[in-house]
Amino acid sequence: MSFIAIDSMIVDYLVQAMDQGYDPSEDTNDHLRPERIATFRLFLWSELYVPPTVAAQLSATRDQPWRERLQRLVAIHLVELAATLDASLISQRVSDLRVIHRDPEDCRVVAESEIAGACVLLSFDHRLRSRLASRTSLQLLKPSDCWERLGVIRGTAPRWIPATSNPIGSKTWWHW
Q1: What global pTM score does this model have?
Q2: 119 within 8 A of 138, measured Cβ to Cβ
Q3: Are 97 and 111 contacting, i.e. CB atoms less than 8 angstroms apart?
Q4: Which end of the chain is more exposed for a tag (fewer CB within 10 A), N or C?
């Protein structure tokens, strides 16, 4: 599970979890709390990739300060998949996927992730996961499911550790 692509919602969760004021015990959204925690842990213990369509979606975020935070995260901490992926292969794959899923951007994100060689695409979009899971070589997973399947042994050092000068570095909720 070393090559993990993420959709735009997952980038949102990661920015939210990285916020210096984020505290899971104060997160009132019981449904998203585990996804935010898992997303941050996946960031620390693996490598996350952003497909070109996701980067474009982030660029279209209307709220300028939020858009800048999303783009800064991608530019500094995440790996962007090459925008030079074979356009004809992507177009053909999008056409194939559109037969079973109407959202062309979802289909494009899946196609780009497949063609780039990802083994997992993280998404909280239930429709995308349920409709396309049987039609793709990717594992379409929520962050919490991916974290569980990754099987990181407790006590294993993460790939990244927030600096002690970083407010999140003193938090313990992300430790494993």
Answers
A1: 0.91
A2: yes
A3: yes
A4: C
Domains of the chain in start order, with CATH, are: 4-170 (3.40.50.1010)
Residue with tokens 């959202």: 103
| CA trace torsion 33, 39, 42, 43 (10° rounding) | -130
* 3-state secondary structure labels for all residues of the chain: CCCEEECHHHHHHHHHHHCCCCCHHHCCCCCCHHHHHHHHHHHHHCCEEECHHHHHHHHCCCCHHHHHHHHHHHHHHCEECCCCCCHHHHHHHHHHHHCCCCCHHHHHHHHHHHHHCCCEEECCCHHHHHHHHHHCCCEEECHHHHHHHHCCCCCCCCCCCCCCCCHHHHCCCCCC
- Give the strand order in the sheet containing 120-122: 79-80, 48-50, 4-6, 120-122, 139-141
> Can you say whether residue 29 is alpha, beta or left, with left for phi > 0 and alpha for psi between -120 and 50 degrees?
beta
Contact of 174 with 44, CB cutoff 8 Å: yes
According to DSSP, the residues that pair with 121 across neighbouring strands are 5, 140
Closest CA to 27 of 39, 14, 36: 36
